[in-house]
Amino acid sequence: MKFLVCISNVPDTTTKITFTPDNKEFNKAGVQFVINPWDEYALTRAIELKEAQGSGTVTVLNVGEADTEPNIRKALAIGADDAIRVNAAPKDAWFVAQQIAHYAKEGGYDVILMGKESIDYNGFQVHGMVGELLGIPTVAPAMKLDMSGNTATLEREIEGGKEIVEVNTPFVASCQQPMCEPRIPNMRGIMTARTKPLKVVEAVGEGAATAVAEYQLPPKKQGVKLIDAANAGELIKLLRNEAKVI
Amino acid sequence: MSVLVVVECDKGEVKKSSLEVASYGAQVAQMLGTTATAVAVGEATEANLAQLGEQGISKVLFDNEPRLKDFVNGAYTKLIAAAADKEQAKVIVLANSNIGASVGSRLAVRLKASLATNVVELPKTDGGQFTVKRGAFSGKAFADVVLSGERKIIAVKKNSIEAQHNGGQTAQVESFSAQLSDADFADAPKQVIMQDQAGGILLPEADKVVSGGRGMKGPENWHLIEDLAKALGAATACSKPVSDVDWRPHHEHVGQTGITVSPNLYIACGISGAIQHLAGVNSSKVIVVINKDPEAPFFKAADYGIVGDVFEVLPKLTQAVKELN
Lengths: 246, 325
Hints:
Strand order of the largest sheet of chain A: 9-8-7-10-6-1-4-5-11
Distance between the termini of chain A: 54 Å
Structural class of chain A: alpha/beta
Radius of gyration of chain B: 21 Å
Number of strands of chain B: 15
Oligomer: heterodimer
Distance between the termini of chain B: 48 Å
Order of helices and strands of chain B: EHEHEHEHEEEEEEEHEHEHEEH
CATH class of chain A: Alpha Beta
Largest interface: A-B, 75 and 97 residues
Number of strands of chain A: 13
CATH architecture of the largest domain in chain B: 3-Layer(aba) Sandwich
Low-confidence stretches of chain A: none
CATH superfamily of chain A: HUPs
Number of helices of chain A: 6
CATH class of the largest domain in chain B: Alpha Beta
Radius of gyration of chain A: 21 Å
Order of helices and strands of chain A: EEEHEHEHEHEEEEHEEEH
Shape of chain B: globular
CATH architecture of chain A: 3-Layer(aba) Sandwich
Helix content of chain B: 25-40%
Number of domains of chain B: 2
């Protein structure tokens, strides 16, 4: 079975977010980039399923410029077999979805996995767009994924519960916890990753459907009002009479 | 041309987040000089749909197909696309829920529309551009996004817009068929399992949340969180370390890699306030922090704070709420 895992390159979760002086772009200076944490579930689960099946391949795909290659190599070190980098800055979800759909179709993949969203743009869009472009089902967000032959059983999270869904390949799923325990690279993986194939291809399709005009930081809090622990009940009065939230 | 609003229903009732969506859509319609039509998904009743008039909806399209009770991506997408075409909708508004965003992303491709998810404010239409503000960087920032497509789809984040209630107005409920076939239900769920929610309040829908961290010392102490939540009518939540060690289920994990909440009131008990946790809660209107460590970083992000032992403070708060009620 051929797995395609889409990964994005995002600022580490501990990053303090700042923007360029015109507020049009994220300020990358001094920022550590990592594989999007949600994508790690997709990657590890694909590798686990391939190992369980005893055959098949896991290909990682990233839409990004050359500076994303360290994280693509990291995905190869974790256990993917080969990689595709679409050589373009990811303009928006529609742009990225067109790349994934094009190269997924070209490669004839059975299962297309990705994280439920990226932690930088938080779109929760790409999986649905890829599924629609390819005319195949999308299951998002999936908390569990098992395969039996060409049939997948997934748990999809819905508000307040979950659905058990069965789909046949090919399909798209976006992944989140507790699907698996994301793996970290070991020394042997890091060594073999250096020689695994990483193909660089050009972008296809139309441009973006949206554009960011400006970024803003959330307004700062006024400062905390402290209430004496011995007189904790006072807080409840303030929440009712001053903050008016209860 | 009208604005199309997608309302999610559950057990006959329109979800609270969808009342907000309906109000949002009605206000957009007013800005554009048109009317707002809703299309219902989930288990709905005609009487409850008619009440969407209170949110400013003039008409509701209702497909009485029983299989639409549960979320089926293929069928929902086809239904909403058919409604959008019937109404010649240029703007489609839905909830930024797992259902709304799943369907919205497929619709964007099918209808060749520009899509913005996680939207927190009404659009701006000055200068001939259609701009919406959306949350980005997992709650650490906002982005103003220009939607350039002729059609636009907006997924509205919960608790960002106040649901309006204009008493006495009713919407006209019109039966509508999208001619759904068995093939549209190919990805229908085999089974739907709903969680037991403490006090019956869903965390993503809650407007008050009481949340516990490692400072609670163990799952056996969670009754203190639950008691306060019950008294307040709040949902319960937890930090990542707590769900990682299985003290609480993962669907209660709030933070950058869990769920993002934006209630009116968020009470954090024994949570130090790591940057990843703050990202998940910092759009809450009022944040209360209870922690015995006065240096806990969460106090910097809080509106009210108590430096003290959660095991002593929580029962006092619960008692005070009961006295107030």
